[in-house]
User: Which sequence fits this backbone?
């Protein structure tokens, strides 16, 4: 009888563990599907921002590979890059961000709320992606503490945010937008070089400026822009009417993949 009780208890415990594991896996799949839906929403709302976050993710992954970060950290950086501007989907910000004229002080203050808005959107997924909301919240912090929204300084800024800040700046300078044509790579590299130690982590800036890294980022940039020129750009209203485009986290197949190692 004693052995039977033990066997029964063991079977019940095993079934409970298996059931809990199954529930956890279902929740993880739902969280991943939620992220994919959010990425689709970025595209459907604004194809320009959708292309921007993919380029930023590609450049960030190249830097992460150059740093020798493991796959887990690379995935964290990738997610922060892909969702760093999701706070700009707020209806009150869309027209301001895409206004070709100069922004007023009030408008600049409104735009500066997008890290906080993005973090609030992503916070419910913190159980599965604990670094995501924090990384998005901090991507406009500066190494010298003069950034926003919290004025974090130095290594108090998450590594994910420090890497994405470099890639975001590079793309903001080089990418053609509605309101400017885009500068050349040399101009973007000068901005990063001059911002090392003030705007950017100086160690990460040095990695970004390595010739091997610059060559790979430039290749990825040219590939992405060439593909964008071949693809018709839908307007916002028609995209919404058709529904979200078929975009998945296999987005990396659309852009040159980062090499596994750098000299």
Assistant:
């Amino acid at each position: 009888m004693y052995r039977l009780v033990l066997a029964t208890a063991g079977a019940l415990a095993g079934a409970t563990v298996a059931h809990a594991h199954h529930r956890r896996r279902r929740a993880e799949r739902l969280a991943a599907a939620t992220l994919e839906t959010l990425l689709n929403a970025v595209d459907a709302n604004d194809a320009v921002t959708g292309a921007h976050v993919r380029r930023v993710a590609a450049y960030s992954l190249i830097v992460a590979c150059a740093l020798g970060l493991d796959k887990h950290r690379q995935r964290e950086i990738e997610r922060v890059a892909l969702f760093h501007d999701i706070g700009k989907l707020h209806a009150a910000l869309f027209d301001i961000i895409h206004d070709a004229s100069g922004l007023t002080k009030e408008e600049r203050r409104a735009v500066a709320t997008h890290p906080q808005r993005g973090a609030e959107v992503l916070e419910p997924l913190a159980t599965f992606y604990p670094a995501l909301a924090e990384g998005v919240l901090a991507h406009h912090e500066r190494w010298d503490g003069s950034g926003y929204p919290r004025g974090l300084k130095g290594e108090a800024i998450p590594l994910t945010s420090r890497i994405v800040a470099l890639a975001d700046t590079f793309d903001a300078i080089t990418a053609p937008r509605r309101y400017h044509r885009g500068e050349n790579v040399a101009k973007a590299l000068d901005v990063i070089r001059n911002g090392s130690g003030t705007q950017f982590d100086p160690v990460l800036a040095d990695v970004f400026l390595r010739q091997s890294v610059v060559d790979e980022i430039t290749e990825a940039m040219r590939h992405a822009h060439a593909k964008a020129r071949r693809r018709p750009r839908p307007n916002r209203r028609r995209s919404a009417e058709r529904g979200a485009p078929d975009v998945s986290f296999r987005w990396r197949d659309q852009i040159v993949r980062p090499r596994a190692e750098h000299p």
Q: What stands out?
A: The chain has one domain: 2-254.
